[in-house]
Specification:
The complex is a heterodimer. By secondary structure, chain A is α/β, with parallel strands linked by helices. Chain A contains 15 helices and 19 strands. Helices cover about 30% and strands about 15% of the residues of chain A. Chain A has a 5-stranded parallel beta sheet with strand order 5-4-3-6-7. In chain A, strands 17-16-15-18-19 form a 5-stranded parallel beta sheet, covered by helices on one side. A 4-stranded parallel beta sheet of chain A has the order 11-10-9-12. Chain A is globular, with a radius of gyration of 21 Å. Chain A starts with a helix and ends in a 9-residue tail after the last helix. The longest helix of chain B is centred in the middle third of the chain and has 13 residues, at about 120-135. Chain B has helices at about 20-25, 45, 85-90, 105-110, 120-135, 165-170, 175-180, 185-195, and strands at about 5-10, 10-15, 70, 95-100, 115-120, 140-145, 150, 155-160. By secondary structure, chain B is of the alpha/beta class. Classes of the chains: A alpha/beta, B alpha/beta. At the A-B interface, helix 2, helix 3, helix 5, strand 8 and helix 11 of A face helix 4, helix 6, helix 7 and helix 8 of B.
Chain lengths: ~450, ~200
């Protein structure tokens, strides 16, 4: 029987199999950031263990950094200490760090791909659940806890059981105004927030084949929001074209050799999956969420469903919504365009194309946070910065920002924020904040109109 | 890691589904650089209001309930990979979490910290919730060696599953890191073969 893309990559990284236990899985690239690494370094230091393969680790700061005045010392003591600790740990263990002020600094899941670190057929981990993003290149990439960060430091390996496989196929033609974010929110709304637990997902079908790498990253990024450890898309010409020429991409003879290997990776035609789902692209509309997990999503024109489930009721009460409500025309005061889901150049191109010549509604605070220094530079080089500023949007410096509100970028209690991020959990964007997840296009349209609108109806 | 074999304790019911790690420990408390003290902020925004006063109807603030077993609704621990969630639960004093479903990363993090996640069926979970509601002092026996939960007062016996490798780790207090380091030769050999 044929093998899946996932099988091929996984099986080629198994160092050893424990009887009735997990595999020892070799990890090609380990990405680290300031929040989930300090305790792992301490664990190593306590046991007097060296970092085994420091050259396979890349570090940056993203979760905890301010998005204003990054050239000044960080005001918050705890944040400053955590960032300084990463610098110290990286220096001590000889690990490359793209810290504040470095032209490669940015959200860990934005810089990996844009620097050409992320490549097909690799295994990659990071102490962050959205590591699934890198699966867009046909790599096995997943989030790990801090104890596992320490394990990878110590051995460049992890003890993990092989997940089951799921394929989600979306074929057909997407409606105008429907973006990759809408596709993944639709899939999660259809399948539920725990549907992927125990699985690794492969996304297949012409919708993903025709999608840009940025769009594929948005899709794979949110795999974890249905519980899946990771998502993958078979590498193809779009993938190779994206990687070629980037800072750490293979070159010349190595490039030819790698491409040959990458071409062998897609799932064999006779490969079978433990679970399969198929959707029709034409059914997907611009999506928004109405609740406190990413599975609680509907088309903008649709009504909030009814349920007697207590957790569902609690969720609606937190959001201030009722069953049967439609969110179309809901007034909002905050818009956030950023996060590892939607902070790449393509997202800002879409946003700026829509707002060119328009002004944001007076009541709206609209925050633009590029995913990396390179994206920030591109925004200016392409002249998008002027468009955002003329429309009244604030452009900040790169970081995770209001996606999880570890820095000062918080949404006030009770306020609605249309956000391009990945999680609408209670308090995610600040205590009491109410997050409505959407695509960058729906988010900018909300900023201009001061309310939620269906872009396909304008 | 602390060893775990058997526990006789009362339990605290958290009858909410899809409890995510942002609720277990909000992101603003992830700025520490050591593992201790996270229990103080466990379920912070459900436990305390904006003025830091305890919210009386949250179960951890209800004096009727106590114990080192947390019983939670379906899909416990979804969301981020933060191990701080497992540290917070353990630091608060929990040794066992029972639910009808756990998110993958949380489950792994719990096991790596001597916190035992036990998966039961939906109906078993409802029976357990009912038992605690009826009698908050009802005693649970959790036996990892023989892989069962018992609630003698309602004559309930549930066998649970656990990966045998992880079971050995918990019973003996072994860390994965020790196991991996002992396999370094194999890892180096794997690297040599790949680069050949």
């Amino acid at each position: 029987m044929g093998k899946t893309l996932f099988d091929k990559v996984w099986d080629s990284h198994v160092v050893d199999q424990l009887e009735d236990g997990p595999d020892i899985l070799y990890i090609d690239k380990h990405l680290i950031h300031e929040v989930t690494s300090p305790q792992a370094f301490s664990a190593l230091n306590d046991k007097d263990i060296p970092v085994f393969r420091p050259q396979q680790i890349v570090a940056t700061v993203d979760h905890n950094v301010p998005t204003l005045n990054q050239h000044l010392p960080i005001k918050d003591d705890l944040s400053r200490n955590q960032v300084a600790k990463l610098r110290k740990n990286c220096d001590e263990h000889n690990i490359e760090l793209y810290g504040l002020g470095h032209p490669y600094q940015g959200i860990v899941h934005v810089i990996g791909p844009e620097l050409g670190i992320t490549q097909p057929g690799m295994t990659m981990v990071c102490g962050d659940s959205h590591t699934s993003t890198h699966g867009a290149f046909g790599s096995i990439a997943f989030g790990i806890g801090t104890s596992q960060v320490a394990q990878v430091f110590a051995s460049q390996c992890l003890l993990v059981s092989k997940p089951k496989s799921m394929r989600i196929t979306v074929d057909g033609k997407l409606k105008n105004g429907v973006h990759p974010k809408d596709v993944i929110l639709y899939i999660i709304a259809q399948l539920g927030t725990d549907s992927g637990t125990g699985y690794f997902v492969e996304y297949a079908g012409n919708v993903f084949e025709n999608m840009s790498m940025e769009g594929r990253m948005t899709i794979c990024n949110m795999s974890i929001e249905m519980g899946a450890r990771g998502g993958m898309i078979a590498p193809d010409q779009t993938t190779y074209d994206y990687i070629e020429g980037r800072e750490f991409a293979p070159s010349q003879a190595e490039w030819q050799q790698k491409c040959k290997y990458w071409k062998s990776l897609p799932s064999d035609p006779d490969a079978s999956f433990d679970k399969e789902y198929s959707f029709d692209a034409a059914e997907i509309s611009p999506m928004i969420t109405y609740g406190t997990n990413p599975g609680m999503g509907i088309g903008i024109q649709e009504q909030i469903p009814s349920s007697q489930n207590e957790s569902f009721q609690k969720s609606l009460a937190y959001m201030g919504f009722n069953q049967g409500d439609t969110l179309n025309n809901l007034p909002i005061n905050y818009v956030f365009i950023g996060s590892c889901t939607n902070s790449r150049i393509e997202d800002f191109r879409v946003a700026s194309a829509y707002i060119k010549g328009k002004k944001k509604a007076k009541n709206v605070n609209a925050l633009i946070v590029p995913g990396s220094q390179q994206v920030a530079k591109q925004i200016q080089d392409e002249g998008l910065g002027d468009i955002f500023e003329e429309a009244g949007f604030m452009i900040r410096q790169p970081g995770c920002s209001a996606c999880l509100a570890m820095n000062d970028d918080k949404i006030p209690a009770g306020e609605y924020c249309v956000s391009t991020s990945n999680r609408n959990f209670e308090g995610r964007q600040g205590p009491g904040a109410r997050t409505i997840l959407a695509s960058p296009l729906t988010a900018v349209a909300a900023a201009i109109e001061g309310k939620i609108v269906d872009i396909t109806q304008l | 890691m602390e060893k775990f074999t058997r526990l006789e304790q009362t339990a605290i019911p958290l009858e909410i589904e899809n409890v995510d790690t942002d609720q277990i420990i909000p992101a603003r408390f992830l700025k520490a650089t050591d593992r201790e003290g996270f229990g103080e902020n466990l379920f912070r925004d459900w436990r305390y209001d904006e003025n830091d006063n305890p919210i009386s109807n949250f179960v951890l603030n209800n004096p009727s309930f106590s114990g080192s077993i947390l019983v939670a609704g379906n899909n416990f621990g979804c969301g981020s990979s933060r191990e701080h969630a497992a540290w917070a639960l353990a630091d608060f004093g929990f040794k066992v979490v029972i639910s009808s479903f756990f998110a993958d990363i949380f489950k792994g993090n719990a096991l790596n910290n001597g916190l035992l996640p036990i998966q039961v069926s939906d109906s078993q979970l409802q029976t357990i919730f009912e038992a605690i509601r009826e009698n908050p002092n009802c005693e649970f026996i959790v036996d990892l060696v023989s892989q069962f939960i018992k609630v003698p007062s309602i004559d309930l016996h549930i066998d649970f599953e656990i990966n045998s490798y992880k079971k050995t780790c918990l019973i003996n207090g072994y860390d994965d890191i020790d196991y991996l380091i002992n396999n370094k030769q194999k890892i180096e050999e794997f690297e040599r073969k790949r680069n050949a």
